[in-house]
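User: structure tokens for Indole-3-glycerol phosphate synthase, please.
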Amino acid sequence: MNSETELAPAVASILEAARERPGGGDRVSVDARSLSDAIDRAEAAGRVPVVAEVKPTSPTAEGTRDDDPAALAEAMVEGGATAISVLTEPDHFGGSAESLRQVRDAVDVPVLRKDFIMHEAQLDVVEADLLLLIARFVDDLEALVAAARERGFQPLVEVHDRAELESALEAGADLIGVNNRDLARLEVDLGTFESVATEVPDDVTLIAESGISSPEDVRRMREAGANALLVGSAIMDHGTGETDITANTRRLTQATTGDE
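Assistant: Done. Predicted tokens:
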């Protein structure tokens, strides 16, 4: 794990809880829905590939949503979401493995398990099509990528800078998310994707994560090379709990170049 930079207190607390969280029981085996196929279908239909996130709350959110997770996911798919991300971290994001099970049963698109996974046993918690591995917080990334694939997961390796990108590529990652949020300070800069995503092999699928809230942001990330976008707060709108999830998703999935 890269510990050169002191982490924000909220992130340090998340990691402390993650280290103590046990893994699952029996080894998970997944027949995964393909994200690359889903991205191709979205683009063929003229939609921007968006991974919409079911996120009850977060350390940076202004409130909490306690809506039914399956209903939220269905509304996102109705709005054109290519895939669904579900937080399973319980202590700081209000997530659960059960929420992910409900979502995956309710929709027919790929579902990403988003959590702070520190060791192999934590892979065996719940079936999902994709699984997030944060390069910064994993000691042996190559081994964990391999272990995830052995179970049938499509591992999404998250990076924030060029050094982490190189580590991800060396670990064999072909699905990489570039987080625009600096987890050391919890600050967001869309320029992060633009600077990190240069000179990436053509066979790597790139996902821009965090800070994407408008059609203009969508177009900016797509022009910088993002194959898909992961969007949470801009769709969930934690402030009111009364937002139209489908409309919020649609305004991003239809944000094609030149649209207003």
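User: Anything notable?

Assistant: The chain has a mean pLDDT of 91.
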